[in-house]
Structures are given as structure tokens and as C-alpha cells.
Write a structure and sequence with these properties.
By secondary structure, the chain is mainly α. The protein is built from 15 helices and seven strands. The chain has helices at 3-26, 31-51, 56-59, 62-74, 88-111, 114-123, 125-138, 145-157, 175-184, 187-199, 201-212, 220-223, 259-268, 283-295, 299-307, and strands at 79-80, 83-84, 225-228, 236-238, 240-243, 246-249, 273-278. A hairpin with a 2-residue loop joins strand 1 (79-80) and strand 2 (83-84). Helix 2 (31-51) runs antiparallel to helix 4 (62-74) and helix 8 (145-157) packs across helix 10. It is globular. The two termini are 34 Å apart.
Length: 311
């Protein structure tokens, strides 16, 4: 059992619990939380490389990870409303990161050291996943900036799968499968997958709530609930809307709209109640998924591994 992984578990659980509480109360998580998590992850990662006596050339993987991580919070954007720009400091930082990332690949390839190349691929995982999560945010697969920053911080805290054998995780995968996942499906993606699986229960819970209140309209009952317009909860979006003078129902309303204006418009249209969809505090399932990923592991791969021999 790796003591550094236990430290990571403690750090991540503490900060994600705080983030979940903040998200539940305000639907916001401040950047210092993620900066502290990611910085702690970078320090622990460096300590792990020193402890394991990793060659200096492999330790260069820390450079792009640090540049890309701190660039999320302190870097200047290359694309603005006025078009492209190239801030000198950001360009220099990313150039250094690129050289630090590529040089070991070239050097190890020339030496033909496949074992070291594979190890370096694992050490580059945080850098790659930062780019992946930023792309997911731009593609709206991660809905909020805090969601993306949380995932980026988790990938900094856990660049590789934890080593808590022989007790955890409960779902033990075949060594070959685990080796492939270590490169193609890093631990941070497992946490995101488990969080998404937990969210599957939300429509079921919403339908059960609506059914108990006699509001069984399909498909609305799976995505929201009905409230009187004089008692609208704080963290919801209106599914009932008025567009062009017509009353319409939107299953997936945009996250940003004028709540007061929407409420006034609905009342003016003669409605006294409306369907709303909750603004889910994603940090809550993410914090739970973080711990479950240690305890349970990968449920989908575990299920497939159990079923395939019977096929």
C-alpha cells in the first residue's frame, strides 16, 4: 500500500468535501480550492519521482504539467473577442513546456528504450488530461468552469492509478487490462465516469418525486419538477418559457438566462406554476465518485471482465 497514495486520498477527499459543500450552498467553488489541490498534487508527484529514483529526463514531465495547470488559472488567453493574440509570457511558457515534453520522447526513442518510453507516457498523463478536460469544457461536455478545474486538479493529484493493493479496489482487473487503462483511461477519467454513473439516478429520483406529487408528464418528469411561481427554489432553470409570445417547454434550458425576467414573463402569460430543472451541484457526485473510485474501481470494466468469460 503506497503511503503517498493514501496522502493523495486524504487531500482529495478533504478538498472535494469542501467543494461539494460550497457547490451545494452557492453553486460556486472558488479557484483557490483547485489551485491548492493541483499544487499539492504536483508536489506529491515530484516527491514520488524522487523517492522512486526516476531518471531526470523522465522527471521533465513535471514541466508541461506545471505550465498547463497554472496556465488554467494565471495564463492569458490566446483567443479573445477581438481575435487571436500571442502574449509573450504565455508563448514562452508553453514553448518551454512543449520542448520539455518532446525532448525525452526523442531521446528515449533513439536509445530504443521502450520501457522508459512507456513510463514517460504515464508521467505525461497529467499534461494530456489537462488538454482533454479543457477541450471537454470548450465542447460543453463539462458544463461549468469549476467542473473542468476540478477534473484538472484531480488529474494533477493522481497522475496514475492508486496503489492500495491488496485490499482496494474491490473490482480487481486483469493486469493486461489495467496496464492498457493506465495509459488510455487515466484515474481522473475513472472518477468522471463514476460521477456520471451516479447522475444516472437523478432522473429516476425526479420521476419518483413527481409521481408522488401527481405530476407525471413525460418526459418532463425525468428532467425537472413543477413549482408554484410564487415559491420558485433558488437554484433552478425554467423549463417553461415564453418565446415570441408563445408558451414553450424546453427540456434542456440554457444555463444563463435572466431569472427575474423569465419569472415575470411567465406570470404575465397567465401561468401560476411552471416546470423547472435543478441546477445540479456536480461537486457532490464528484466527491462521492472520488472515494468510490478508490473503493470500487472501474464498475464497467469490472462488469465486462466478469461477463466476457461466460460468452
Amino acid at each position: 500500500m503506497d503511503l503517498l497514495d493514501i496522502l493523495r486520498l486524504g487531500i482529495g477527499t478533504a478538498f472535494l468535501a469542501y467543494a461539494a459543500l460550497s457547490d451545494w450552498r452557492t453553486r460556486q467553488v472558488r479557484d483557490p480550492v483547485w489551485i491548492l489541490v493541483g499544487t499539492a498534487g504536483l508536489v506529491v508527484f515530484g516527491a514520488e519521482l524522487i523517492r522512486d529514483g526516476v531518471d531526470a529526463i523522465l522527471a521533465l514531465a513535471l514541466v508541461p504539467a506545471a505550465v498547463l495547470f497554472f496556465g488554467v488559472f494565471y495564463g492569458e488567453e490566446f483567443v479573445t473577442e477581438r481575435g487571436w493574440r500571442f502574449p509573450p509570457r504565455s508563448v514562452a511558457a508553453y514553448a518551454i513546456a512543449l520542448v520539455a515534453a518532446i525532448f525525452p520522447i526523442i531521446d528515449l526513442s533513439r536509445a530504443g528504450d521502450t520501457g522508459e518510453l512507456r513510463a514517460y507516457a504515464l508521467y505525461l498523463s497529467p499534461s494530456v488530461m489537462i488538454l482533454v478536460f479543457r477541450a471537454m469544457y470548450q465542447a460543453h461536455l463539462l458544463k461549468g468552469g469549476a467542473d473542468a478545474k476540478a477534473m484538472i486538479s484531480i488529474t494533477m493529484l493522481f497522475p496514475m492509478y492508486p496503489s492500495l493493493a491488496p485490499s482496494l479496489p474491490l473490482l480487481v482487473l486483469e493486469p493486461l487490462v489495467q496496464d492498457v487503462l493506465a495509459v488510455l483511461f487515466p484515474f481522473s477519467l475513472l472518477v468522471l465516469l463514476n460521477a456520471a454513473l451516479l447522475l444516472v439516478f437523478v432522473p429516476i429520483a425526479l420521476f419518483a418525486y413527481n409521481a408522488s406529487h401527481g405530476h407525471v408528464e413525460i418526459p418532463e418528469a425525468f428532467f425537472g419538477f413543477k413549482v408554484p411561481l410564487n415559491r420558485v427554489p433558488r437554484f433552478v432553470w425554467f423549463m417553461d418559457q415564453v418565446e415570441g409570445g408563445e408558451h414553450v417547454r424546453v427540456l434542456f434550458p440554457r444555463g444563463r438566462h435572466d431569472r427575474a425576467s423569465s419569472l415575470r414573463t411567465l406570470k404575465d402569460a397567465g401561468l401560476d406554476e411552471a416546470w423547472v430543472t435543478p441546477q445540479l451541484p456536480f461537486m457532490v457526485p464528484l466527491a462521492i465518485a472520488y472515494v468510490l473510485s478508490f473503493i470500487v474501481g472501474n464498475p464497467i470494466m469490472g462488469l465486462l471482465q466478469a461477463l466476457l468469460p461466460a460468452v
